[in-house]
Amino acid sequence: ERYRFSIEAEIEQPLQTQSAEIERLRAEHESLKARLIEAGGLRRLLFEKGPQLESAILEALRLMGFQAEPFDDGESEFDAVFTSVEGRFLGEAEGRDNHAINIDKLSQLERNIQEDFARRKSPRPRKASFSGTRTGFKSRKSGAIASPTNA
After folding, report:
1. With contact defined as beta carbons under 8 Å apart, do 87 and 71 qualify?
2. Which of 83, 105, 121, 126 is most enclosed, with most CB atoms within 10 A?
3. Residue 11 belongs to what H/E stretch?
4. How do residues 58-78 score in pLDDT, each as one tens digit?
5. Which position has the higher pLDDT, 37 or 27?
6. What is residue 62's DSSP assignment?
7. Is residue 119 pLDDT above 80, yes or no?
8. Where is mean pLDDT largest: 18-27, 69-78, 83-92?
9. Would you say 136 and 146 are in contact if contact means Cβ atoms under 8 Å apart?
10. Is residue 100 within 8 Å of residue 60, measured between CB atoms?
11. How far apart are CA 151 and CA 139, in angstroms?
């Protein structure tokens, strides 16, 4: 600092101001990117499988007014347990890329309902809900298969 020129101090102040502005803009940019991803999140209902599909289904159920959560107590695991004034529901999700959804998924849902009914010892079993994705969606205009990258 002893051998510093006065012009350096004059330049350093606006440089620090710009650096702070750049950091503010970076944070805003990251926030906007996150909001953009969130805004298109329900598109996962069309294309995803596994935990991504399950998460999108839970989000959609909550948007429709249901209380929805996954369930895992170490013995039983259900993709979605959701409630509303209409009743209690147990949901199963399945996403596929290249094949039709296996009919075994419906029997799995039935077993889950019976298991939940026995575990809860309630007077009525939950209602069932099955959610699945298609193997591909074709654009009406181009005939191209839509995917997460070109949807």
Report:
1. no
2. 126
3. helix 6-39
4. 999 999 999 999 888 888 888
5. 27
6. H
7. no
8. 18-27
9. yes
10. no
11. 9
DSSP 92-136: EEE--SSSPPPTHHHHHHHHHHHHHHHHHT-SSPPEEEEEE--S-
Tokens coding 67: 């209380």
Contact 135, 99 (CB under 8 A): yes
Report the distance separating Cα 90 and Cα 71, nearest Å.
Answer: 10
Q: Which of 121, 120, 127, 143 is nearest to 92 (CA)?
A: 127
Say if CB 81 and CB 112 are below 8 A apart.
no
* CA angle, 55 then 58 then 63, to 5°: 125
Chain position carrying tokens 């007014």: 65
